[in-house]
Amino acid sequence: MRGRLPNLLSNIFAGDLAPLGGPVVSDRLSGYVRAEQMRLVKRNSSGLMLANICNAVVLMVAVMGSADAVVAQAWCGVIVFVAGFYGWRSRFSRRITPPQTVSRLATQRLCASAFLLGSLWAVVPAVFFPAAAHSTQLVMTCIVAGMLAGGALAFATLPIAAIAFIGPLLLGAMTCIVRIGDFTYALVAILLAAYTVVLLRSVVLHALEFTQRVVQRVEAETAVRHDALTHLPNRIAFNEGLRLAQSRLDLTGHAFAVLLLDLDHFKEVNDQFGHPVGDDYLAQIAARLRRSTRDIDMLARIGGDEFALVAADIDSADAAFAIARQVCDVFAEPFLIEGHLLTGSVSVGIALAPRDGAGPNELVRHADVALYRAKKSGPCSIRFFEPGDDKTARDNQELLRDLEGAVARNELFLVYQPILHLADDRITAFEALLRWDHPQRGLIGPSQFIGLAEESGLIHAIGDWVIQQACADLACWPADIRMAVNFSVAQLQSASVLPGVLRALAQSGIAPSRLEIEITESMLISKYATAGTTLNALLELGVTVALDDFGTGFSSLTYLRKLPFSHIKIDQSFVADMLVQPDSAAIVKSVLSLASDMKIGVVAEGIETAEQLAYFKGTACEAAQGYFIGMPMRAAQASALLGVVSKSSSQAA
What does pTM read for this prediction? Predict the structure, then answer.
């Protein structure tokens, strides 16, 4: 009980209205309520302070020539100084961005200021009223009544401040009336007390309604600015925090950094374990990130697996890097979710203010450009924005715009690299390779534009064109020639890929067994959950599937059992080194042995010398491909190589 009373009084003097029937709110929400209370009090402060000065001057004039004139002048001087100081400070504070939250101490200081002013006005009835003439007493009565009403109005949102101002003034008036002892004055005292009670009741009711509205508004705004899954601020709140950081930089010169975070391989978690596990994974990541960041930093979730951080008071790239390093360290320990141990990582892009941008939008854009480069550098990479990044981003945007119409303008074309069947020593297949003849940039390889096509969704239209053209060219060649076509992850995850293959086969009239779909090992490992259905449907159709770049990713032996691959292709990096590097030679021998046991054909990629070709002719390798065997060529050249007349629409330019 002893501890409750001081705590209750402390809450009341901090503006808490719960003891008066107001809503019970959290400390954080109380800060928002106090900020709104203070904002309106400051808005009314200039008028109240002006009224203080005018009333003090009027009173000084009214008692001029009396015995209290000197005291009144001194008192008036004090009122003018105090009211002028408070008025100036209130007016200055309104020029800067008001804080979102206000501390308990700030409210208590406001109450102390109100009590000081009220105490100064209590001098009027206590000191000047008894000896004044009746006309002067009338003036004083009007002034006191006006100050009571003005104080109630000025502090209408903060009852404790209103009481702090009105209380001393009312006490001074009562003391004066009791000292005079006149019945008429006693009636005035009763009226004055009644008016004060009515005023304070109105103040309390208004403050309760005001507080309730503020609480409801803040809760609604919090919901709009709040991410329900991670309990972090969302993109709206992040943008607001970024603008506040920019305002602070402009006003005080305090620099800051923008960090964009993107989880590596998050989609695989959803694909493999389901969305509930993915959601729990995000929530645990958010909790760790909160613990790893400073209180002055703003952490937000701005997308599915994207987070952002506004790091305050960052004066160097080293300081920003240290924060990014702490973020990466969050993933050092695995996450235990529903019995699964999940390991993860994050890529980070950083832009420093004011060095890397003139405003919030430019900073975010540059941080995003840095993040794009970080993701291309591998898991848990940290990259700062560099001036050259901006040019690269603009070039990519221009390239993407040109790519949108490349199919319609007939700028894309296919070349075909022959595949040699080693036992028969003849060409039995080709691999279709995509090229882009850009009107200004010249010949562009797929490594420069396929990634852009996948990110933008253009890969579906381009992929459909590739399969149509490849099948049309294949229809012009002998029936024992096969065609290998590379498929990207995005294509195999699309529902439109199977109808596209069926349409290409029907229009060209070729047998499905002549078409082979090539997928990379790394894609198979990471995307099998979403691509497996499409792959199996293609296999049921009669199309064969080859596994490209075998040995460069993680172990894919499990998937060799799940899918009946017709071929696996030994990556050219092993072929290039096998005659000089024992490790590469051992890998090649292991792949050949494994494929033989599983009755899967092997194609050796990257054959560039006669020695390499001779090596594979002495093994169980079925076929070989590389520049030594044949360079990629147009359809007409491939037809000539096969000894047939080309009827394809993709004749050599």
Answer: 0.53
